[in-house]
Amino acid sequence: MTWKLQAISGELEGQEVTIDRDMLVGRHQDADLLLQSAEISRRHAAFLLKEDALWVQDLKSSNGTFVNDIRIDQDKMLMDGDIVQFASIKFNVLAPAKVQDTAHQSEVETPPAVVVEPVITPTADTPVQQPVEAVATAEIKETASVERSAAEQMSEQGMPELSARDRNVQITREGMPSGVAVPKPAPIPEGVDIHTPVVPEADEVKAPVTRVQEEVETQKNAKVGLMTVVSLIILAIIAWLLFK
Question: Transmembrane segments in this chain: where (predicted)?
Answer without folding.
Answer: 224-243
